[in-house]
Amino acid sequence: xxxxxxxxxxxxxxxxxxxxxxxxxxxxxxxxxxxxxxxxxxxxxxxxxxxxxxxxxxxxxxxxxxxxxxxxxxxxxxxxxxxxxxxxxxxxxxxxxxxxxxxxxxxxxxxxxxxxxxxxxxxxxxxxxxxxxxxxxxxxxxxxxxxxxxxxxxxxxxxxxxxxxxxxxxxxxxxxxxxxxxxxxxxxxxxxxxxxxxxxxxxxxxxxxxxxxxxxxxxxxxxxxxxxxxxxxxxxxxxxxxxxxxxxxxxxxxxxxxxxxxxxxxxxxxxxxxxxxxxxxxxxxxxxxxxxxxxxxxxxxxxxxxxxxxxxxxxxxxxxxxxxxxxxxxxxxxxxxxxxxxxxxxxxxxxxxxxxxxxxxxxxxxxxxxxxxxxxxxxxxxxxxxxxxxxxxxxxxxxxxxxxxxxxxxxxxxxxxxxxxxxxxxxxxxxxxxxxxxxxxxxxxxxx
Length: 448
Hints:
This protein is mainly alpha-helical.
């Protein structure tokens, strides 16, 4: 018999965790489908990379702006209540978006400068953002419902559900957009939001401990108190800052990846290919349930980033959908290790009554830089890099071996992003905050 610790989801608190996880999977599928589909749809209607960059920016601004507030709601209220409120809020926003889609004339959707188009996009994004509160509540429920020595495995399952949701999303979003525009996508999101509410109405989450202590700022967001907790753990603020910078340069992915893929293949094929790629995330998450994230999750997180930025340099070297798939698949395999590593670190070193706010604060800070990149990279790509590699100086200088056209302009953006990411990650591995946080994780008593 193996003595490897195992995660049992059939009885007790871990069974409750399984219900919440299943519900979160369904909601993630619906929300990611809306996000993917509206990005595909707007690009196909307007053929504007700038427009897709703005959508990414809107999403990330909203995510960054609401993270700390959502975290305070998770800490100040019962987890079950905030999750259910999230489902209702998403349902309301999706219903509003459906009404706009059915009532407004089709000409609105073809004009990237149309205010009504952006009203529709923002309302849809609000429905997606309302679902983000689950992403903050879920790791706190891992702390509440799963024993400390099994939490990294549980975090691996969370990563697996993320992978499954992206896989299903990437497959169905392209098909839905191709055959029915946005109508079926919105209807799917509404049905799933309602079904999730009904499902969790019959699930009881026992929170025997106090949700929030009486002196920790329960009446508001209490950003000052959250900062005290974060700064009190050696190296933790540096870790969050590193993730923030990663997202700063990673915003290029959100702004350019879909237009890049859609230049190479049809929307249906692009969606199906992402289904293949995201299968790597599922496998990676399942591997974590067997291996954990190692004795030093901080090192695991940084090593995964080395892989990420290397891939970012490799796949754009040639205008080949085959090269993209072959290069990105290993990245998908290791990505869950980064997310699980960060969650495991926070679950160990942050007091439970503060975890919602710290997870929310981390989300806000880490996402804050991505909108800036998305807003900068989209117009830079559209108005500078694409002309540069289509009929400009770049096409003449490196076009004979690198290729020419819009996709080659986007490829240069990816390569520059990867080089910067590799340099920064290498410096982080050599830094003092990395060593301090690694020691703190090893020495601090785990939260129980």
